[in-house]
């Protein structure tokens, strides 16, 4: 795998925030939008860059697209795992993101609920 696209993908705060959330499990695009308080276009653009850098991969379940961290990348480039596991959390905004993720997971709500605007995580 090429190193430069990986480093470029890791150079953006929003993409680091996405990776921070994905280290706790797969998430749908709509979940990422709500958790990071970004619009669909912005989420898709950042997820596309992460996918092109081979940091994440996706799969579809019905009408939803879920993303997850590619395990191969963590084995091939241990520095990526180090950044995801140890460094990203040092960004203050990532603490807030994880609080929202925890609230969301405990709520029992689904992607359908998010699309209907049934949750406020702030």
Describe this structure in words.
- InterPro entries: ArsR-like_HTH, HTH_ArsR_DNA-bd_dom, HTH_MetalResp_TranReg, WH-like_DNA-bd_sf, WH_DNA-bd_sf.
- Keywords: DNA-binding, Transcription, Transcription regulation.
- It is a single chain.
- This protein is mainly alpha-helical and 122 residues long.
- It has a single domain (3-104), classed as Arc Repressor Mutant, subunit A.
- Helix content is 61%, strand content 11%.
- It has eight helices and three strands, in the order ααβααββαααα.
- The protein has helices at 3-9, 13-22, 29-36, 40-52, 71-76, 78-87, 92-107, 111-115; strands at 27-28, 56-61, 64-69.
- Strands 1-3-2 form a three-stranded antiparallel β-sheet.
- A hairpin with a 2-residue loop joins strand 2 (56-61) and strand 3 (64-69).
- Helix 3 crosses helix 4 (40-52).
- The radius of gyration is 14 Å and the shape is globular.
- The model has no long low-confidence stretch (mean pLDDT 91).
SSE layout:
Blueprint: H1 3-9, H2 13-22, E1 27-28, H3 29-36, H4 40-52, E2 56-61, E3 64-69, H5 71-76, H6 78-87, H7 92-107, H8 111-115
Antiparallel strand pairs: 1-3, 2-3
Pfam families: HTH_5
Protein name: Transcriptional regulator, ArsR family
Organism: Caloramator quimbayensis
């Amino acid at each position: 795998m090429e190193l430069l696209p990986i480093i470029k993908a890791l150079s953006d705060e929003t993409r680091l925030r996405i990776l921070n959330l994905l280290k706790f499990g797969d998430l749908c695009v709509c979940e990422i939008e709500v958790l990071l308080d970004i619009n669909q276009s912005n989420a898709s653009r950042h997820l596309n860059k992460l996918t092109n850098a081979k940091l994440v991969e996706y799969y579809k379940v019905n009408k939803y697209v879920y993303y997850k961290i590619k395990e191969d990348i963590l084995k091939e480039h241990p520095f990526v795992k180090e950044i995801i596991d140890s460094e990203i959390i040092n960004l203050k905004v990532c603490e807030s993101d994880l609080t929202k993720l925890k609230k969301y997971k405990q709520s029992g709500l689904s992607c359908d609920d998010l699309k209907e605007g049934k949750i406020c995580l702030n």
